[in-house]
Amino acid sequence: MITPHRATDNETELISLAGYSLGDLRADRSRELAAAVRVVLHQVERPRTNLGGGGPPGRAD
Predict the structure, then answer these.
(1) Radius of gyration of the chain (CA)
(2) I need a surface site. Which of 2, 9, 32, 52 has the fewest CB within 10 A?
(3) pLDDT in tens, the chain (61 residues)
(4) Phi-psi region of 19 (alpha: psi -120 to 50; beta: other; left: phi over 0)
(5) Which of these, 25, 61, 56, lies nearest to 46 by C-alpha position?
(6) How many helices (H) does the chain have, and how many strands (E)?
(7) What is the per-residue pLDDT for 43?
């Protein structure tokens, strides 16, 4: 099992999945990955609207 690490170059709460294959992710049972999946699923369940002006669509987390 590969233990994911926190991303360091970007401002994010999520872990870095650099170097992971889908097989690695499916086999990984770490608490860090499970927590990251919960965060992403919560964001998908409650998306934010882009109320900005002429800029590109996206989130500002």
Answers:
(1) 14
(2) 9
(3) 555 555 555 567 778 888 999 999 999 999 988 988 998 898 888 877 665 556 666 665 5
(4) left
(5) 61
(6) 2, 2
(7) 83
Token code pair at residue 13 = 């709460």
3-class DSSP state for residue 1?
coil
pLDDT for 29 equals 92
CA distance 17 to 22: 10
Written as one letter, the residue type at 3 is: T
* Phi-psi domain of 60 (left: phi exceeds 0; alpha: psi -120 through 50; beta: other): beta
**Identity of the amino acid at 33:** L
Q: Using alpha carbons, select from 3, 30, 27, 31 the residue that is nearest to residue 17.
A: 3
Nearest CA to 36 among 2, 59, 13?
13
